[in-house]
Amino acid sequence: MRPAMSVILLTTLVGVGQGLMIALFVSEALGETVWAKAGGSFYSFGGLVVLGFLLAGLVASFFHLGRPERFWRAAMKWRTSWLSREVVVLTALICAVMAYTVLHMLAGFDSRSTDGTMLWGLISAALALLLFVCTGMIYACIKFFQQWATPLTVFNFSFTGLASG
Questions:
Q1: Which residues lie closer than 8 Å to 107 by C-beta, 6 or more apart?
Q2: Coil, strand or helix: which one is 62?
Q3: What is the pTM of this model?
Q4: Which of the chain's termini has less CB crowding within 10 Å, N or C?
Q5: Would you put residue 39 in left (φ > 0), alpha (ψ -120 to 50) or beta?
Q6: pLDDT (tens digit, 9 = 90+) per residue, 106-139?
C-alpha cells in the first residue's frame, strides 16, 4: 500500500492537533502545570498551535480530493459514511478550538480559568476523541486489509493519536 502524501499529512497533522488539544484541556482541568501558573497566555498560545495543526491538516486534505471545488460534498452523506462524519467532526472541532482560544485571549493573562473556557475545552476534547473514532473507523471498514478490519483498529488509532499529543 502506498498512501498519498496528502493522506499521511492529513492524518499526522490532525492527529497531533487532536492529541495536543486533549493534553491542553487535561492540563487546564488539573491546573497542576508549571505553565498554568505563568498565566492564561499559555492556553491561548496552545490553542493557536492546535489550530495551526488542524488547519494544516485540513489544507493537506484538499490535495487528496479529485475535484477540490466540490469539497462541500464530502460532508453530505454523514449518516452512512465515516469519511463524511470525519469531515463534520473536524469542522466542529476547529470551531470549538477557535472558541476555546478566543475565550482565553479575551481572559488575558489571568491564570484562573473561566467556566466558558473549561466548557469549550471539554467540548473540544470530546470532539477530538470522537474524531479519533471516526478516523479509526475509516480504516477499520477497509475489508481489503484484513489486519485493519477489526474493532481493535479504532482503539489502536485512538491511543496512538493520544500519544502524539
A1: 40, 113, 114, 117
A2: helix
A3: 0.85
A4: N
A5: left
A6: 876 555 556 778 899 999 999 999 998 888 888 7
